[in-house]
Amino acid sequence: MQPKLPQLTIQQLEYLAAVSNQETWAKAAKHLQVTPSALSQGLAELERRLGIPLFERMGRRRVLTNNANEVVRYAQNVLAQTTDLARWANELNAGQTGTLRIGMIDVAAVAHFPRTLQAFIAQHPDLDLSLTVASSAQLVEAVLAGELAFALVVKPPKTIVDCHLTEVLAEDLAIYAPDGTIQGDPATWGPWVLFPEVSHTRQLVAQALQTRGAPVQVTAVSNQPDVLREMVQLGMGWTVLPVVQAEQGPNPLQRAQPQPLIQRHLVIAQREDALPNPAADNLIAALLRASPHSLHEA
To answer: 182 — phi, psi (to 5°)?
Structure first.
């Protein structure tokens, strides 16, 4: 049969640890910033709840009994662990520890914000940051399912119920064609290698091309900009890509038209009813500060 647990308080254990470390009860009370009367009453209640005497008289002084030594060790252990718990809770509330799961489309993670992510990880060594790179549609679904604290995605063409959007930046997308292609009448542009039809960017691109009078004959699709870029270099078709991905690194693509075709907006998507998450808030603030064209509104 389990013994009934005494209803001890952290304050009572703190009183006991203090009198064991200080020369007098008066000094212990001063250290704790309580009155000697409050200290005496608290320790008397601790003795009552334990059912054993913790102090004995030695002249005018009250000293610990032999049995009290075990209780003092227990009090010191509990206080140390409680201090650790309080520190951990403070760090968690400040976004310094715990787990943070986020999502980003590839251009955000690789081209726009890699240094921001690296700096955030370095500044929060006790925070377990998990990053998922996927399409905007997949990431938004994960946010709404509660699997991600937030996701940095292409702004959806339609309003998403229960989802709050914060605009981060706007980026240019341009048209790219294989080398040697005659770039004349838009009616002759293509065929195209583009993002999949369900992609938010694909919808923006298709609408813009149709507005320009270009037929959208798609011969290949890929979620990976690097794959689309390679297809253009191999002569498989034309594409529309973010300038930051198409024109950087080895073997950059050359624009078929000098002006960008469209501008798309990258946004942070969060559930409207999500619980407060200090770590997520800290990272979002860092992303907004790092954005070259931060818009800061939805």
So the answer is: -75, 120
